[in-house]
Fold this sequence. Notes:
The structure holds three protein chains of three kinds.
Chain A: E1 5-7, H1 12-20, E2 26-28, H2 34-39, E3 47-50, E4 60-62, E5 68-71, H3 76-82, H4 87-93, H5 99-102, H6 107-113, H7 120-127, E6 130-133, E7 137-139, H8 140-143, E8 158-163, E9 168-175, E10 182-191, E11 194-200, E12 208-209, H9 211-219, H10 244-261
Parallel strand pairs in A: 1-3, 2-3
Antiparallel strand pairs in A: 4-5, 5-8, 6-7, 6-8, 9-10, 10-11, 11-12
Helix pairs in contact in A: 3-4
Chain B: H1 16-20, E1 36-42, E2 48-54, H2 56-59, E3 64-69, E4 105-106, E5 112-118, H3 121-129, E6 132-137, H4 144-147, E7 163-169, H5 174-182, E8 186-194, E9 206-212, E10 217-222, H6 227-239, E11 246-249, H7 265-277, E12 281-284, H8 287-291, E13 300-308, E14 314-326, E15 353-362, H9 376-394, H10 398-405, E16 412-413, E17 419-420, H11 425-435, H12 441-450, E18 454-463, H13 471-476, E19 485-491, E20 497-501, H14 510-522, E21 529-532, H15 550-577, E22 584-587, E23 590-593, E24 599-601, H16 602-610, E25 625-630, E26 639-648, E27 655-665, H17 672-692, E28 723-725, H18 745-764, H19 778-785
Parallel strand pairs in B: 1-12, 10-11, 14-15, 20-21, 27-28
Antiparallel strand pairs in B: 1-5, 2-4, 2-6, 3-5, 7-15, 8-13, 9-10, 9-12, 13-14, 16-17, 18-26, 19-20, 19-25, 22-23, 23-24, 26-27
Chain C: E1 2-8, E2 11-17, H1 23-30, E3 49-52, E4 55-58, E5 71-73, H2 87-94, H3 104-117, H4 123-129, H5 141-150
Parallel strand pairs in C: 1-5
Antiparallel strand pairs in C: 1-2, 3-4, 3-5
Helix pairs in contact in C: 2-5
Amino acid sequence: xxxxxxxxxxxxxxxxxxxxxxxxxxxxxxxxxxxxxxxxxxxxxxxxxxxxxxxxxxxxxxxxxxxxxxxxxxxxxxxxxxxxxxxxxxxxxxxxxxxxxxxxxxxxxxxxxxxxxxxxxxxxxxxxxxxxxxxxxxxxxxxxxxxxxxxxxxxxxxxxxxxxxxxxxxxxxxxxxxxxxxxxxxxxxxxxxxxxxxxxxxxxxxxxxxxxxxxxxxxxxxxxxxxxxxxxxxxxxxxxxxxxxxxxxxxxxxxxxxxxxx
Amino acid sequence: xxxxxxxxxxxxxxxxxxxxxxxxxxxxxxxxxxxxxxxxxxxxxxxxxxxxxxxxxxxxxxxxxxxxxxxxxxxxxxxxxxxxxxxxxxxxxxxxxxxxxxxxxxxxxxxxxxxxxxxxxxxxxxxxxxxxxxxxxxxxxxxxxxxxxxxxxxxxxxxxxxxxxxxxxxxxxxxxxxxxxxxxxxxxxxxxxxxxxxxxxxxxxxxxxxxxxxxxxxxxxxxxxxxxxxxxxxxxxxxxxxxxxxxxxxxxxxxxxxxxxxxxxxxxxxxxxxxxxxxxxxxxxxxxxxxxxxxxxxxxxxxxxxxxxxxxxxxxxxxxxxxxxxxxxxxxxxxxxxxxxxxxxxxxxxxxxxxxxxxxxxxxxxxxxxxxxxxxxxxxxxxxxxxxxxxxxxxxxxxxxxxxxxxxxxxxxxxxxxxxxxxxxxxxxxxxxxxxxxxxxxxxxxxxxxxxxxxxxxxxxxxxxxxxxxxxxxxxxxxxxxxxxxxxxxxxxxxxxxxxxxxxxxxxxxxxxxxxxxxxxxxxxxxxxxxxxxxxxxxxxxxxxxxxxxxxxxxxxxxxxxxxxxxxxxxxxxxxxxxxxxxxxxxxxxxxxxxxxxxxxxxxxxxxxxxxxxxxxxxxxxxxxxxxxxxxxxxxxxxxxxxxxxxxxxxxxxxxxxxxxxxxxxxxxxxxxxxxxxxxxxxxxxxxxxxxxxxxxxxxxxxxxxxxxxxxxxxxxxxxxxxxxxxxxxxxxxxxxxxxxxxxxxxxxxxxxxxxxxxxxxxxxxxxxxxxxxxxxxxxxxxxxxx
Amino acid sequence: xxxxxxxxxxxxxxxxxxxxxxxxxxxxxxxxxxxxxxxxxxxxxxxxxxxxxxxxxxxxxxxxxxxxxxxxxxxxxxxxxxxxxxxxxxxxxxxxxxxxxxxxxxxxxxxxxxxxxxxxxxxxxxxxxxxxxxxxxxxxxxxxxxxxxxxxxxxxxxxxx
Lengths: 262, 787, 161
């Protein structure tokens, strides 16, 4: 790692101020992706602003609209244990990484990083969640902008994520055998107003919504509604672990399984 | 009843206590006063001409003590290769130089170009980034067959081609094999790849060099399976340090699997730099660095043909293999595809004629050498896959086809130059079928079908040659070293014993199993015996641990030394009891005079040896310490039968190992608990090769699976509880313990069982799939099912 | 350089660190507790697992500065003061759940964390929980068996040898 300082502010306001001091400053959430990146010397921050000591972004509650609101600094383990009001989300959190990673990694860190194979982006986009930052609220549909790209501005910090709770939902992950990240992960959520289907791991463009499946499932929420539907292999990730065609196929399989399990 | 001590007892491992409490002493736990740190600048391109290496800026960086480049090693030897193979035409293999730091060219991603020694790790790394390297990139030589084509770019410009050797075995049999295949009733042909693997011992390599200017002594602490071999290779061939001025210590070592046999550049560097700087110099390999600097394993491309007569008797085997050597010849690399592979092509079968052709090829990849099994997994995989394919083509039961062709009379001289001393392949197969609950398979198949899954069963046999090795034989085959083992048994005055062995334990449990043997021989408690290993200043010159040799060769040396102790103590006891030496019996730690009630205790005799007041000084010397060197008369030949049952998810192609049974014949067993553990570990590595692991390069020579993010290591949920058995025992006929080796069997026997099972599952479901290359990953299985 | 203070194995521990000092480096190099190992650099092998405030974490993927004020337990803090192995450690020895010993500290720390939250885990739950701990020696058979035994479950039907 290159040398850097660590600051541990106690409030979001102080964290924002610390980040604003230099373009080279960077927030540190759970660090489960950032620290390996730093070890490879792929990032050279001047100061890491740790969000770990900010109690105002910890914890889970439900708002008046019934949304499950999760502080950005809440670990995967705490979401798994505490998001019982949204079982599909709790279950998603409980299958990220491994137990030690879940004890450090946070929802805010995952969403800010937007790894194309991460689970939370599928959960947030599939749920139509709202990403709350120190400055504004961003709809999930506007937030994810391609692999590792988000709507966040420099120095902007996610503080909370608000999840509307669907009538039924499920997340199915087919793991890449080495990293155990999603080779393909599909989050399906059935709301009164329609069904949302979000896919992670598959596309070169990062997490995306499978609109044909959403339309079909909104009319008939059963796996058979997906018969005949498929995604093109074009634009799918093609690597050591699977071709684009394989990933496209898996999206169909995982979507069916998610609908059946929802 | 299980024994509670001595040979055959599952004694708990005494070494566990320190490992379970964090008190192990691994090389990275060693820190010397005044220690400096080295960071290696490694090539990030696969092939290129080094035009310049400018270290000026780096030298001025904070904390930098010195920057070394290939020029600093111009007067120093290169890393030696320990085995020379002679080709089909009687010519020696092509043997390129292997510099400690690159000279003139870089030949694989990871090839070290320069080394910075600094006060801290991060300072060394900072400075390495400031080194300016100008490389003229050359095309990467990656595909083995293309590498041998006329006009291919050469990995080594001073060689005539990229061919290391073209080996024929047994060359005199070639025409007979060709004729047998021509006249066969049936020939089954299979083309397959044995995937390249990264050994991945959990402890990354570490080296600490130390130098004492006042005595001119050098010490190297290193993660090695064979410290004496490192001392010899590094001292004699690289740095020119005589052995009496060089000590190599391999303390607790966190797994090896072959990858810590070889003498690596980093070891020579740290020893060299410690003297140059008069400071201890430490290198700790990161896992990412390990992927591009530890020797890899396997990487064969093979075509095998099996000929059968009208009665389904095997009449000939012919193979053509391309074996990847990587960019340089690692210490034992040339022997792996030849003498550890060709000699096993008879398998458990009485095939009368066999011809093996191996073309070893240089490519711009990390050097390839022995990895658990080393050549024998490749042989077993080919043979057991082609037999399975033949059975399917012929419509016969694959188990019956194997049994029909088993070798049943021993000793058996194969047509590939080895003699199996003993074995009983029907016994292990019978045992396997019982363990695998074959009769329950149909019910399990039906259950899988009900759940929308496919199910398959794969069975195979294996035999391997281990307990390496008779020195005179391997000398004829090109080995540049002997392969005996040593032991010193030092009996202390009050009767406790320290055994110094040239074997090295890096997980095998020698500290527990070796005392069981000595305790059994002397009739004393195991706790009275302590094992020392891993330090060239303590143990006599030994060859280390690999090739499942520790108990068969190292244990035998210990037996021989203990026999000398027994002979001497009997003399002393006879003197003390004024009896005839011939009448002395040693039983339960006591010397008795046969037919009398006279006896003297073990401790009285050992004390007399060091306090020789009443002692036959005119006949024997005082003291009680004996050394033996044991050179085996033959290899040992563990063999067995394995069965794997898989479920396949037809929607995703994911294979799940549902059951795995292994029936092994290891001859006599010293510690059954440890032996089972060795098999378990081998099975996981074999299953890993079959399902998960793959060191894949792109066409530019970049390693695609260069971390655990892309190299799939077997994890706890990838494997089941195994069913293992070693009750079928045909003791080895030529070593004193009657033992065979058990360390590699699991990794040798398991890959074909897995692939046979997957093919079986797909065929049962109506897919016309006869082979899938390893790793049989979900995407490959799915692609195969698409036709 | 900054100062960090924490409690390690029940005793106060403090030292000078850089921002980039990982918890595992602080433990190994500042405190000389070398039982915690580093087996990878991508946060996967789990040889470095320790407990921070009672939870299993990878000490290679946490900065020492972030452990300010925390209660840290390493493998050296698991046995009784007189050296008696705790039930998980003892089960690993009884059932041959280790060979080279390098992954073992992380395995013991993960297994202990599992049993703290799930005192009678099933085989499948154990295998799932060990997703972040890689062992190259044992094939996991005896590790899973040892954890079942440490939780007081009957392992006599699992092949002993």
